[in-house]
Amino acid sequence: MTTPDNRPDPNADTYRVFAIRYATLRRDPHHFVLEPHPEVIDPHEGGRVIDYFVWVIVGRGRIVMVDTGFNEEAANKRKRNFLGCPAAALSRLGLSAERVDEVVVTHLHYDHAGNLDRFPNARFHVQRSEVAFATGPDMRHPVCRAPFEPEDVCHLVTYNFAERVRFLNGDGEIAPGIGAHLTGGHTAGMQAVSVETARGKLILASDVAHFFDQMVWRNPFPVVVNIPATLAAYERMRELAQVRDERGEIHDRPDMVIPGHDPLVQELYPTVAEETIELSAEPLGESPLAKVWTL
């Protein structure tokens, strides 16, 4: 667990990265894959858990949030098991929402772009294509707008008028050692985040892949804008995590890729505070991606 001596220091030379679990839900497994799969569709399973996370990057003079979750009102509306406000949960790390410098919005779905109003001093980073889709004509279709909340999108528009939004048009740097990577697929402007940590470059995939299994089986989450782009994004996550040794040989780092909603993350990385996992620490077990990412 974190102690006052082990809490992340924003002025440290290296980044530490944390996942905060703020909600959960159990549903039938078929809700989580586009095509039936024998390892998922088992009537005896009694459902599969999906966890909801936000991520915090601390170090090198800054505090960066990756996504902001949803609030209790949204949880009640969508019947999610709400564990607590993600913004308030920063206190477990000795931090506060008021101290957050940058917020990367990986995409504008309700479970990633709520609570923007809880970060009064932050600048928001989002892909142009994501905002164009969320404010464009396709939102007239119920199936397209279902994962979005108008209030969240309006908050972002309001902050743009206040000159607090940075629109990315592809890959870009959020801060030294922190990168944004446009993939599309799950949404029109889906982006992942890379972070240089003491143990290597960590890839926060967010909803590029909800679960490790989806990258293993190449079977996307059923809420998807572009299936081929989603499958290509799985390959991109692998490439982003790869390292080249002094002989020029490429090595996979499956332990460096973190999906957006997988409960297994809690088993693979150490818990350091209530519902708070340190992803920049050494993993406690082998990633499922190691089964398929072999050169």
TrEMBL record:
Q: Which residues cross the membrane?
A: none
Q: Does the keyword Zinc apply?
A: yes
Q: Which InterPro entries match?
A: MBL_superfamily_lactonases, Metallo-B-lactamas, RibonucZ/Hydroxyglut_hydro
Cofactor(s) recorded in Swiss-Prot or TrEMBL: Zn(2+)
User: What CDD domains does the database record attribute to this sequence?
Assistant: AHL_lactonase_MBL-fold
Looking up SMART domains in the UniProt record yields:
Lactamase_B (SM00849)
- Asked if Signal is a keyword of the record, the answer is no
Which Pfam families does the protein's record reference?
Lactamase_B (PF00753)
Q: Where is the Metallo-beta-lactamase domain?
A: 51-261
Keywords of this entry:
Hydrolase, Metal-binding, Zinc
Question: Which PANTHER family does the record cross-reference, listed alphabetically?
Answer: METALLO-HYDROLASE RV2300C-RELATED (PTHR42978:SF7), QUORUM-QUENCHING LACTONASE YTNP-RELATED-RELATED (PTHR42978)
The record's similarity note reads:
Belongs to the metallo-beta-lactamase superfamily.
- The molecule here is called N-acyl homoserine lactonase family protein
Which species expresses this protein natively?
A: Fodinicurvata halophila
